[in-house]
Design a protein that fits this description.
Blueprint (H helix, E strand, L loop, with lengths): L1 H35 L12 E7 L4 E7 L4 E10 L4 E7 L7 H4 L2 H7 L3 E8 L1 E10 L6 E10 L2 E7 L6 H17 L8 E3 L2 E3 L8 E5 L3 E10 L8 E11 L4 E4 L13 H8 L2 E12 L2
Antiparallel strand pairs: 1-2, 1-15, 2-3, 3-6, 4-5, 4-9, 5-8, 6-7, 7-12, 8-11, 9-10, 11-14, 12-13, 13-15
Helix pairs in contact: 3-4
């Protein structure tokens, strides 16, 4: 009887030791693997990283997940909302020399205005989806994606609200004069390179520089958006955001035509159909 109790006691001890080892071994192995290599296995949508970025595209936030051993997809939001940039713009009424127009009271009042302060408001926000392809065993990669969001890249507005009635009246006089006498006098307003920003019926300059709403992107990068062996990763991405030739548009939707086709801002805007993007991204791998 004592022998049976002894064997049963030994059996329980073996079972207890075995159960303890069974519970401790996976934890020890997992800890060892974690120290050696953190989430480095390949797979589709089996990891998630969140990132913060900044650069010429502005500050932004995104999430990243792997689609393949060499492909990572990112989705997020990026944009600019820096403070207003103020500058003085020249009044084009001072360039009118035709005697009949100069004698008009509306034009005389407009010619008395020297320069007007404009506020340049950069406001440009976009959501994006981007794929990164790492075809070589190096930190270099190729990136491509789509940005969609704000069409307005820059917003011009006078700082003295409702104070440009003289420019509005003078421009209406020029429009009537051109229609009556079949002349081609340029509009009266504020000069911005080869463009003239005219006042609206609220006696304000309200002009937007507009681009495409959906913008393709192509670029190259260096670094990792999804860390292989650590939690934190850093990447630098540089490329072009294709947004079409920007257009200057009045508040009522009317496109502003350039006074020149060969030089100045007109030439620059027609060439500026792609916006250069350089972004630095810091990411944290959640799992």
């Amino acid at each position: 009887m004592k022998q049976i109790r002894h064997h049963i006691s030994q059996l329980f001890r073996v079972l207890a030791v075995t159960a303890t080892l069974a519970l401790l071994t996976p934890a020890a192995v997992a800890q060892e693997n974690k120290n050696l290599k953190l989430h480095s296995e390949n797979g589709m949508l089996n990891h998630l990283a969140v990132g913060l970025q900044t650069g010429l595209g502005g500050p932004g936030i995104d999430v990243a997940m792997p689609l393949h051993r060499i492909v990572t997809v990112r989705a997020g939001f990026v944009g600019n909302a820096i403070g207003d940039i103020k500058f003085k713009a020249i009044n084009t009424a001072s360039q009118i020399t035709q005697s009949q127009l100069v004698e008009d009271d509306a034009v005389k009042q407009a010619k008395m205005v020297d320069k007007v302060e404009l506020a340049l408001k950069p406001r440009f926000w976009n959501a994006f989806v981007m794929a990164e392809v790492h075809p070589f065993p190096t930190p270099f990669y190729f990136s491509a994606g789509l940005f969609a969001g704000s069409r307005t890249f820059l917003h011009f507005r006078n700082t003295n609200d409702g104070a440009l009635q003289s420019l509005y009246d003078a421009n209406k006089k020029v429009e009537d004069y051109n229609a009556l006498f079949r002349t081609n006098y340029p509009p009266v307003g504020l000069k911005f390179g080869d463009y003239v920003f005219t006042a609206d019926e609220n006696y304000n300059i309200d002009v937007k520089m507009k681009t495409w709403a959906v913008k393709p992107y192509l670029g190259i990068g260096f670094g990792q958006s999804m860390a292989q062996h650590h939690r934190l990763s850093v990447a630098v991405d540089a490329g072009l955001l294709f947004w079409g030739a920007p257009k200057f548009v009045l508040n009522n939707g009317t496109k502003i035509k350039s006074t020149s086709k060969e030089s100045g801002i007109t030439h620059f805007v027609s060439w500026f159909s792609a916006y250069p993007m350089i972004q630095v991204r810091l990411a944290y791998k959640i799992f």
